[in-house]
Write the C-alpha cells for this entry.
Amino acid sequence: MVAYKLWRTYAVPRSIYGLEVMNLLAKEKDMLELAERKILRQIQGLPNNTATMVVYTLVGAEPIAITLDKNVLTFFMNIVRNSGSMECEILRRQIAFSDQRGKDFINRVEKTLSKYNLKSSSYYTENPLNKIEWKRLVGIKIKEYWKNECHNEKMEKKTSLKYIEIQNNPLNEAHNIWKSVKKILTTQHI
C-alpha cells in the first residue's frame, strides 16, 4: 500500500501533467495504461497475466484513464465557473460551433460527460456547479462507472475471476486481502 501511495502521489501527477488539454491518441493512452498496470503488478507481486480489473481493485487503484477524465472535467468546470473570462467565451463558442466528429477540447469533454452519464456541456455552461458540488458529482459518477466496469469484466471472465469479490467501492479503497495482510504483518512483528 505504501508503494502504491508513492506511485499515486509522485509518479502519476508528473506523468500526466497537462494532458487534459492535449488530444491524446488511443495508442498513447494505451501506453500510459500499460505502463501503469505493469507498475501495479510489480508493486503487488502479481503475474503478468493477471486480469486488469484485479490489478486495480486489489489496491483500490484509479486507472490512469479515469484520472485523465477527472482532470478534463475539472479543467472544463474551472473554465465554466470563470464566466467573464476569455477562456469561457472561447469555450462557449466551441460549444456552439462544434461537430461530433471533431477532435477539439469540447468534443473530448462531451465524450467524457456522456461516458459517466453526466449532462451535456451546454447545460453546465448555463448552470455551473461550485467546486465542491462538481467534485462530489464527478466522484459519484466515476465510482458508479468503475464499479460497473469491474462487474462487467467479472461476468466476461467468469472462470478466472470467480474467486475475487469486488468491493462496494473498488476505487481508492484497498481490497480486504491487502487489509488482512497488513494486520497479519503487524501482529507477527509484535
